[in-house]
Amino acid sequence: MEAYVVSIAKQALYLTLILTAPPVAAAMMCGLVVSLIQATTQVQEQTLTFVPKLVATVITLALVGPWSLMQLVNFAHSLMDSFPTYVK
What we know:
By secondary structure, this protein is mostly helical. The chain has helices spanning 2-41, 50-86. α1 runs antiparallel to α2 (50-86). The protein is elongated and about 65 Å long. The termini are close together.
Protein backbone atom coordinates (compact mmCIF):
# COMPACT_ATOMS: atom_id res chain seq x y z
CA MET A 1 0.00 0.00 0.00
CA GLU A 2 2.81 2.40 0.87
CA ALA A 3 4.54 1.74 -2.44
CA TYR A 4 1.28 2.49 -4.22
CA VAL A 5 0.96 5.88 -2.53
CA VAL A 6 4.56 6.73 -3.35
CA SER A 7 3.97 5.69 -6.96
CA ILE A 8 0.85 7.86 -7.22
CA ALA A 9 2.69 10.84 -5.73
CA LYS A 10 5.57 10.32 -8.14
CA GLN A 11 3.20 10.17 -11.12
CA ALA A 12 1.33 13.26 -9.93
CA LEU A 13 4.53 15.28 -9.56
CA TYR A 14 5.75 14.18 -12.97
CA LEU A 15 2.41 15.07 -14.54
CA THR A 16 2.53 18.49 -12.87
CA LEU A 17 6.00 19.06 -14.28
CA ILE A 18 4.93 18.04 -17.78
CA LEU A 19 1.74 20.12 -17.75
CA THR A 20 3.40 23.30 -16.47
CA ALA A 21 6.44 23.14 -18.74
CA PRO A 22 4.91 24.67 -21.92
CA PRO A 23 3.48 27.86 -20.32
CA VAL A 24 6.59 28.39 -18.21
CA ALA A 25 8.87 27.90 -21.22
CA ALA A 26 6.77 30.32 -23.29
CA ALA A 27 6.91 32.96 -20.55
CA MET A 28 10.67 32.48 -20.20
CA MET A 29 11.30 32.81 -23.92
CA CYS A 30 9.07 35.86 -24.17
CA GLY A 31 10.82 37.43 -21.18
CA LEU A 32 14.20 36.77 -22.76
CA VAL A 33 13.17 38.39 -26.04
CA VAL A 34 11.70 41.43 -24.30
CA SER A 35 14.81 41.74 -22.12
CA LEU A 36 17.05 41.68 -25.17
CA ILE A 37 14.92 44.36 -26.81
CA GLN A 38 15.03 46.45 -23.64
CA ALA A 39 18.80 46.09 -23.38
CA THR A 40 19.23 47.02 -27.03
CA THR A 41 17.00 50.09 -26.88
CA GLN A 42 18.03 50.99 -23.30
CA VAL A 43 14.39 51.22 -22.22
CA GLN A 44 14.39 50.00 -18.62
CA GLU A 45 10.69 49.82 -17.78
CA GLN A 46 9.97 46.99 -15.32
CA THR A 47 6.30 46.64 -16.22
CA LEU A 48 6.94 46.29 -19.94
CA THR A 49 7.56 42.55 -19.75
CA PHE A 50 4.31 41.69 -17.97
CA VAL A 51 1.83 42.01 -20.85
CA PRO A 52 3.84 40.03 -23.46
CA LYS A 53 4.46 37.25 -20.93
CA LEU A 54 0.77 37.15 -20.06
CA VAL A 55 -0.25 36.99 -23.73
CA ALA A 56 2.32 34.28 -24.48
CA THR A 57 1.15 32.23 -21.51
CA VAL A 58 -2.53 32.53 -22.45
CA ILE A 59 -1.84 31.58 -26.07
CA THR A 60 0.25 28.61 -24.96
CA LEU A 61 -2.47 27.44 -22.58
CA ALA A 62 -5.05 27.76 -25.36
CA LEU A 63 -2.93 25.67 -27.72
CA VAL A 64 -1.82 23.04 -25.21
CA GLY A 65 -5.06 22.99 -23.21
CA PRO A 66 -6.76 20.03 -24.93
CA TRP A 67 -3.64 17.88 -24.61
CA SER A 68 -3.24 18.86 -20.95
CA LEU A 69 -6.85 18.03 -20.20
CA MET A 70 -6.48 14.66 -21.91
CA GLN A 71 -3.42 13.90 -19.75
CA LEU A 72 -5.29 14.87 -16.58
CA VAL A 73 -8.30 12.77 -17.51
CA ASN A 74 -6.09 9.75 -18.27
CA PHE A 75 -4.36 10.12 -14.91
CA ALA A 76 -7.66 10.42 -13.04
CA HIS A 77 -9.06 7.45 -14.95
CA SER A 78 -6.06 5.29 -14.02
CA LEU A 79 -6.46 6.34 -10.37
CA MET A 80 -10.14 5.45 -10.33
CA ASP A 81 -9.51 2.11 -12.03
CA SER A 82 -6.88 1.01 -9.54
CA PHE A 83 -8.58 2.44 -6.45
CA PRO A 84 -10.85 -0.55 -5.65
CA THR A 85 -7.93 -2.95 -5.51
CA TYR A 86 -6.28 -0.98 -2.70
CA VAL A 87 -9.38 -0.23 -0.60
CA LYS A 88 -10.27 -2.94 1.88
